[in-house]
Amino acid sequence: MSEVLIEARGLKKRYGKTTAVDGIDLTVHRGEIFGLLGPNGAGKTTTILMLLGLTEADEGRISVCGADPMRDPLTVKERVAYLPDMVGFYDNLSARANLRYTGRLAGIAAQELDARIDGALARVRLDSVADHKVGTYSRGMRQRLGLAEILMKRAQAAILDEPTNGLDPQSTFELLDMIRTLRDDGMAIILSSHILDRVQAICDRVALFSNGRIAIEGSVRELAAQVLGGGYTLQVDTDPKNGAPHKGTLAALLGSVEGVSGVHSAEPGHYHVLAMRDVRDAVARAMVEAGVPILRLASVEPSLDEIYRRYFEGINGTAHGTA
Amino acid sequence: MAQRMARRSGSPWKGCGIVFEKEFSDHLRSPRMLVLEWLILLTGIGAVFMSIQGLRTTTAQDPFLFLRLFTDARESMPSFLSVLSFLIPLMAIGLGFDSINGEFNRRTMSRVLAQPIYRDALLLGKFGGGLATLAVGLMTLWLLIIGLGLLRLGVAPSGEEVARGFVFLCVALAYGGVWLAVAMLCSVLCRSPATAAFSALGAWLLLSLLWPMMARFLAEIVYPPTDMAILLGVQSPQQIGLQQILARISPSTLFGEAVIGMLQPATRTFGVVFASQVRGAVAGAPLSFGQSLLLVWPQFTGLIAAAIILFAASYMAFQRQEVRA
User: Fold this and answer.
1) Which residue in A116, B61, B153, B173 is a FRET match for A138, CA 20 to 30 A apart?
2) Is the Cβ of B34 closer than 8 Å to some Cβ of chain A?
3) Number of Cβ pairs closer than 8 Å across A and B?
4) Strand partners, A22
5) Closest-CA distance of chain B to residue A72, Å
6) Entry pTM
7) C-alpha pair distances (Å), A234 with each of A179, A296, A302, B227
8) Within 13 Å, how many C-alpha atoms sit on residue B273's CB side?
């Protein structure tokens, strides 16, 4: 695996009597997007602030780009860029002037700064409005300006807190696309969100936060295998009127295919098949042999939304009293 | 805490100059500053103009004519000095009341602090920027008044007058620094700029208008006047002493004393004078510049110390604050 850029072990943070973060371990590699997912107040932002050295951890060990944010915060902040939740800019200054200020604070050499700003603004497609005051910008443009700041800084790692918060679908799509190009440049990216389906598309690995802990962690497929009981979901449609066998028999037929771990049917003729591996081939053969018409046989990406809901249903079902 | 600080690497001054530059240019271009500048300019020049009208008749008699420009009051118009002692705090509070909480409200704080600088640099840069703005404003005003005096009085100021005027300028800046530090402390403690502005203005009203009266009452309670004193209509020396100590808690008292000591060279002391102390003194004779400076030195350093203490308090409060909005 490639180089580890962000590593935390046993991170804890208490505010008075409440424990915001309760023993978190995480590892993020170069060229990887790591998603921190969870409801509001689960400890995502606190974890992010501790990684950046903006809040002191009570316990635990952190290493970010080879430096300890508690002992050497300036080195960490030189190498890591941060896009806060609902990022703000100085509205009375132009986009360029805003970037110039943070760029100078970041210690970028004056002769290099203007070229870097121009490059960054062009990449987020704000170059045509670079000299407009940020007060005239929309939410989506502000978030893109935040990304331009990360590009300008040429950081090794970027931490984005709820980057898609309050954006319309089109802007969300554009922003996530730009974040993906950052990853392709070799940055390590941590991204927090509570909007799951959008984030799922770009995260290589995710961690589900719950009450200050990481409940489960892994790629979306791994989580699906763990929570839903199968990493692959097939959608099978057949015609219930035309020669289809009795509902129970087709379900039993699908269940008997090797590798299938579960079959659910929402309505007659529509089946969801969960499997540990891609079993489209075997399912098709079984159906053809049994003479069942196949109207549709498609592989469905496991949805993070569903994993999330099912996981917390499970937790709340068993441990409702303690929550 | 101290141990943890010592372990941190990197300079706390890194980025301070950049913050300073931005704050300074923001202040100079802000409409708020423009309003404050014009307010001070118009009232200040009005006061000086009135005092010039009176002074022109007595040009020949006064060796410190120029200094009278600052201190003379004419009918219906207060002296330039009282205008300043009122307006400097207003200007300083106007510059500082939203310096820290404004960053939180604009949601720029976490973005700025995510750059490789310490919080020290941000706070110090902001204080420096405000102070520099005050300095520019006061300096302009000072030069304008001297120019106006030259034109209207037709007399050039002596070297000593310029020196005394310059010390006055420094004292005024220190006084402004105190109120700037008060405003910044409020802006760290209160998340809403309106609350911060009202707290700072409240502190200013309390210390400038009410405190001198309260000092008198408190001194009277601690040292009740004797029957003899009431009969003679005087206060006991202890009572006056205590009253003075209490009154000097207020920066406006310190400012008033320091400025009077500088601009009225005949001032020898600010407290009670006993007959033994004035034996051999020529009544009304001015002190030399050095002696006047010695006289106002404690007041001057007191103002600077107050500004530093207040700044340290806001520094401590700011360091403990959570970055998340």
Assistant:
1) A116
2) no
3) 81
4) A12
5) 5
6) 0.87
7) 30, 10, 9, 104
8) 10
